[in-house]
Amino acid sequence: MAVEEPKSLQQAIPRFQYALVMRGKDVTAALDPYVTRIEFRDNIEGESDQLDIDVEDVDGRWREAWYPSKGDALLLSLGRRAEPMITLATTEIDEIRFRGPPSTVSVRALSTGINGGYRTREPRPFENMTLKQIAQHVARRRKLTLVGTIRDIRIDRVTQYHERDVEFLARLAREYGYAFKITGGKLVFHALDAMREQAGILTLTEADLSDYEFSDQIKDVASSVESRYHDPRKKRLIRRRHKAEGVGASTDTLRLRTRAGTPDMARHRTEAALARANDDRLAGSLSLRGNPRLVSGASFTLEGMGKLDGTWLIRAAVHRITRQTGYATNLQVRQTKPARRQS
Length: 343
Description:
- Helix content is about 15%, strand content about 45%.
- It has helices spanning about 10, 30, 130-140, 165-175, 190-195, 265-280, and strands spanning about 15-20, 25, 35-45, 50-55, 75-80, 85-100, 105-110, 125-130, 145, 155-160, 180-185, 185-190, 205, 210-215, 220-230, 235-245, 250-260, 280-290, 300-305, 310-320, 325-340.
């Protein structure tokens, strides 16, 4: 006997509830009979968060009265029934696609949007400023709120070489050991070393996973980093060497050549480069029933899977709801701390 497809998206997820807010107005009830898919992609760094919504357009209203405008605010909240919902996506509409027959509409929204000019290329030099001051300068110029704890790292000189603000800040964050993104009107910096130490918000076992794949690699894993940088004050080449902890059998050395105005700049860059090189030595992907708490930047504990047990950081999360499959979450993860084992 064939299973009847739910007549609305909400019927497909009876244990959960969702809400869509467009242009400041709750449109959930109006859209629910027509929505066939909602998918939110949440990244810890490097890419804009992305919200995709597919709807049926049987009477053509999306080409007329309901036609959305680029830049319109679009928010997605999700949660278990009888519990407060979590706002997953604070985005702005970037693209609208029409297909047919039958007539359907796909709306794509991005966290960085198109109204703030974050993607405008603009050359700009910065001299004798800290990393935090540079981030604050960009945040003020773009009318964003800077979020996150940034160490007092003084940078003698750096130039934004015809880079978009997003590209420029992502480069600085990467060089000095941070993850960076713009989301919900906030310019967010996360210290990666703090993320590597954070505890899991919940525990997962193999029984919770519908699909998984993990990879433990030696190739491209560095046991140490050797850096050479030009010190403009001493007018000579300085060499530094830094060793990594717990990298197994690897004997590879990461070689880094850069310009640094101070030993402190060189040290931060060296440590960040080595940590990044080894971040993905034990990494993977997994799928499970939907859970809105599992977002990028959060950590969870894995138990009952032998040497895979430990704390894992979520690099990227996809929350997908469809009429056919209900609500599922897919994660890209890396292990930050192995489980402690009794001898």
